[in-house]
What we know:
The protein is α+β, with helices and mostly antiparallel strands. It folds into two domains: 5-85, Winged helix-like DNA-binding domain superfamily/Winged helix DNA-binding domain (Arc Repressor Mutant, subunit A, Orthogonal Bundle), CATH 1.10.10; 90-139, Ferric-uptake regulator, C-terminal dimerisarion domain (Dna Ligase, domain 1, 2-Layer Sandwich), CATH 3.30.1490.190. The chain is built from six helices and five strands, in the order H-H-H-H-E-E-E-E-H-E-H. It has helices at 5-13, 20-31, 38-48, 54-66, 110-120, 136-139, and strands at 70-74, 80-84, 90-95, 101-104, 128-133. A three-stranded mixed beta sheet has the order 4-3-5, with no helix packed on it. It has a two-stranded antiparallel sheet with strand order 1-2. A hairpin with a 5-residue loop joins strand 1 and strand 2 (80-84). It is globular and about 45 Å long. The termini are far apart.
Amino acid sequence: MEYGRDIASALSKQGYRLTPQRLMILEAIENSDDHISAEEMYSQVVAKFPNVNISTVYRTLELLKQLDLVTETDLGGGRFRYHPANKGHHHHLICRRCGATIDLDETLLAPLEKALLREHDFVAELRHLAIIGLCSRCRQ
């Protein structure tokens, strides 16, 4: 089993310790098929390390965000999810009523990026974006 190999390698190269708990958190992030919450990571880690506190997960996530190794996406309602930065950019439409998540093609945001640069001289970093609204089922 690979323990968050890509992120672990980046951490190690920058001089950070790779504790067993940190490796379990990295594994949870790297092996998740979708975005993963801190609570889901904690459940996986505490199964093997019962004395681990959820604050360990949050501290590790803060470090990984600072180092641009993971992205944090606010899916609305206080639901934050994490994704390895090296697995690419993508965006989501989130239904505020039923919670449905629809993946959004990144190219749809290119005109927004250009408009922000042109009109506000602002370079947007649109790595992971969640747009909250209503899906077609909930609008009816």
